[in-house]
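Hi all, posting the design record for the shared folder.

TITLE: backbone redesign
STEP: 1 of 1
STRUCTURE INPUT:
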């Protein structure tokens, strides 16, 4: 979801409001069935949940989707699929500008490195993970034992079931569940509108409502060269939703921190978020300069800049919320109430009483570590080439070890995905790589000074820009075949390579490993143990209405289609297609509001009264982008693509009065696909005709 600056509104009312039944991102194996029945009179059955689970899709790149036809057609957002659109584009054929429609199956374009996962089975492995740590001497040893057991469980599960297996940490360590996925790597692009239609209004209208966005994109899953025959898929509602209708959202929210202690939130407010924002602001300005140098620079870097701007806006909104005294007071009051209950009982105090103070101590230690860790991690994370170099270096070190003793991302159960991404044939643009590395090396110098030993070793006597240019020019593994040869050759091939990026990866690997070890031993392990205690205390006090923070795993949210605010100033729940043309005329001359030529040409051919976007009270966060909105029959009535301004604090608290999720209406998608893009075969498949 693309997010603008937050304007905190009516947060004082939050402290006085009890949580709406609509709040929460629930596990499908622990749904809020009683609350839904009580509030909406609808019974959520196991059959309904299984069907939705096995029709929902996770995009490994970050986003959600759903299978909507028997032939494996997958629906998601345009902005979830835009990375693939860029990778499939050329200088002469820019799919982001032109859009794409495969008129036949033969024309569907294979994506270079897209992985789609469908959650198939869930197993609670909490007892087994915790048992591995029962004899540990300290928190660090306990954390290491849990991580090793998690990788062991994943490997055993994959060997037994042949399904991708992931142990998911819930309640910051209160529970551990094993998720098994059907995973697909042959994914092909079917349809995407022009970006001007998908992101109409740009940053000006972003995270606002009313909205007018056809933010949809369609892919197809293949297996053994043929479209899959989907065992489960969603049906389409041609009638759509009406105001006050009960709706459900099934998606993969990325990360929330609603269970964090007050002191942990203060660490976010005072340390982590300000430093993150400094880097994002800096990168955004530099990329704007890079893009301004040429049309080709603008093409290859537009998604990079969009991601940076998205992060900057999201974190700006979150920081503004944490800086609001009313929000923090709400969190302090809730924590004070829970701790009072714990302290009032000797048994509870003995079990849980020290947990909050232990987390406070961990955050105090993190203050000393965070700055350096974030800078060093950032150098590797952003550059495609340097990230590949680090993977190659670490594979040579990790593969000789038993799977359970490796870094978790190099365990046997995760290697298939790692290799798929590492050997991707995606285009690599030297100019973009030089720009990214220049920015990250400059950041290293700015944070630690030019005389720092690490800085001196990394720059090797050159400026950041000259060093970046040298690294990219000297790279020997831009071809995926060369990356594979280096991995296959192991340490011998690495020692023989004369590649500056591989040498830099080896240099950074030592520092990164040590920073990671300190973080895992002194911070993460402490948090896992003590948040598990706090989760247990909350369960004891509040029962099963406590839902876990988001972990980019499948969740159920629910609510109703509902206007925002009270009459006469209420914001209506729906917009229509006519409103898009009115908005374009109103903001004529601003590029963000330029309509695509296809829309201008077909204005006469569409029903302008067709509902376009709508808002609902479902609780969502980043990662929910692309989630289907379904009615009580499990039929698609919409497609989540954003939230309103009040949803920006959703990382730490749900605004039960004003927060709204924003969706594309099912009727608008059919109307546009049929009558603007003439993609009748696609519309027929969506409607199962």
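Okay, here is what came back for every position:
SEQUENCE:
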């Amino acid at each position: 979801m693309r997010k603008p600056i937050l304007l905190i509104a009516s947060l004082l009312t939050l402290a006085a409001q009890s949580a709406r039944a609509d709040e929460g991102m629930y596990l499908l194996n622990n749904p809020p069935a009683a609350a839904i029945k009580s509030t909406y009179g609808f019974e959520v059955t196991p059959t309904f949940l299984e069907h939705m689970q096995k029709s929902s899709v996770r995009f490994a790149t970050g986003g959600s989707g759903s299978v909507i036809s028997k032939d494996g057609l997958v629906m998601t957002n345009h902005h979830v699929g835009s990375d693939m659109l860029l990778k499939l584009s050329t200088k002469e054929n820019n799919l982001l500008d032109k859009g794409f429609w495969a008129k036949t199956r033969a024309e569907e374009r294979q994506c270079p490195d897209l992985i789609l996962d469908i959650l198939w089975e869930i197993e609670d492995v909490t007892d087994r993970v915790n048992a591995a740590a029962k004899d540990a001497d300290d928190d660090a040893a306990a954390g290491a034992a849990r991580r090793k057991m998690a990788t062991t469980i994943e490997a055993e599960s994959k060997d037994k079931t042949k399904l991708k297996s992931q142990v998911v940490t819930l309640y910051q360590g209160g529970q551990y569940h094993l998720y098994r996925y059907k995973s697909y790597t042959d994914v092909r692009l079917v349809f995407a509108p022009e970006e001007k239609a998908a992101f109409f209004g740009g940053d000006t209208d972003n995270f606002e409502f009313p909205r007018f966005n056809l933010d949809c994109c369609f892919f197809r899953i293949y297996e053994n060269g043929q479209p899959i025959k989907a065992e489960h898929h969603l049906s389409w509602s041609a009638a759509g939703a009406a105001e006050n209708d009960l709706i459900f959202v099934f998606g993969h929210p990325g990360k929330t921190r609603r269970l964090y202690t007050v002191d942990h939130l203060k660490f976010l407010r005072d340390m982590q978020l300000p430093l993150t924002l400094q880097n994002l602001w800096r990168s955004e300005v530099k990329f704007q300069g890079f893009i301004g140098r040429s049309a080709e620079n603008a093409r290859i870097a537009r998604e990079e800049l969009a991601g940076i701007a998205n992060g900057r806006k999201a974190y700006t909104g979150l920081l503004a919320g944490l800086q609001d005294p009313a929000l923090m007071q709400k969190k302090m009051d809730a924590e004070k109430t829970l701790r009072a209950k714990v302290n009032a009982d000797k048994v509870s105090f003995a079990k849980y009483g020290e947990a909050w103070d232990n987390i406070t101590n961990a955050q105090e230690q993190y203050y000393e570590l965070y700055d350096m860790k974030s800078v060093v991690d950032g150098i590797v994370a952003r550059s495609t080439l340097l990230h590949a170099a680090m993977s190659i270096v670490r594979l040579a070190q990790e593969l000789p070890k038993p799977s359970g003793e490796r870094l978790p991302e190099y365990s046997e159960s995760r290697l298939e995905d790692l290799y798929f991404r590492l050997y991707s044939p995606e285009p690599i643009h030297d100019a973009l790589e030089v720009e990214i590395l220049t920015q990250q090396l400059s950041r290293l110098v700015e944070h630690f000074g030019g005389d720092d030993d690490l800085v001196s070793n990394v720059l090797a006597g050159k400026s950041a820009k000259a060093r970046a240019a040298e690294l990219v020019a000297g790279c020997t593994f831009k071809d995926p075949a060369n990356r594979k040869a280096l991995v296959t050759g192991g340490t011998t091939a690495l020692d023989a390579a004369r590649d500056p990026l591989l040498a830099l990866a080896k240099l950074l690997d030592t520092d990164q490993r040590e920073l990671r070890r300190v973080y895992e031993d002194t911070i993460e392990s402490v948090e896992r143990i003590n948040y598990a205690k706090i989760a247990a205390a909350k369960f004891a006090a509040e029962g099963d209405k406590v839902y876990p923070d988001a972990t980019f795993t499948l969740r159920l949210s629910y609510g109703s289609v509902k206007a925002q605010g009270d009459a006469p100033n209420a914001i209506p729940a729906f917009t229509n297609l006519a409103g898009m043309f009115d908005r374009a005329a109103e903001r004529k001359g601003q590029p963000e509001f330029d309509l695509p030529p296809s829309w201008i040409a077909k204005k006469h051919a569409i029903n302008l009264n067709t509902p376009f976007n709508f808002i609902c009270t479902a609780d969502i966060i980043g990662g929910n982008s692309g989630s289907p909105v379904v009615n009580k029959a499990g039929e698609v009535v919409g497609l989540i693509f954003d939230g309103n301004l009040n949803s920006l604090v959703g990382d730490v608290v749900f605004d039960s009065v004003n927060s709204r999720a924003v969706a594309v209406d099912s009727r608008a998608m059919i109307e546009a696909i049929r009558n603007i893009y003439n993609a009748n075969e696609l519309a027929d498949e969506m409607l199962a005709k």
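COMMENT: The longest strand covers residues 175-184.
Let me know if anyone wants the other runs.
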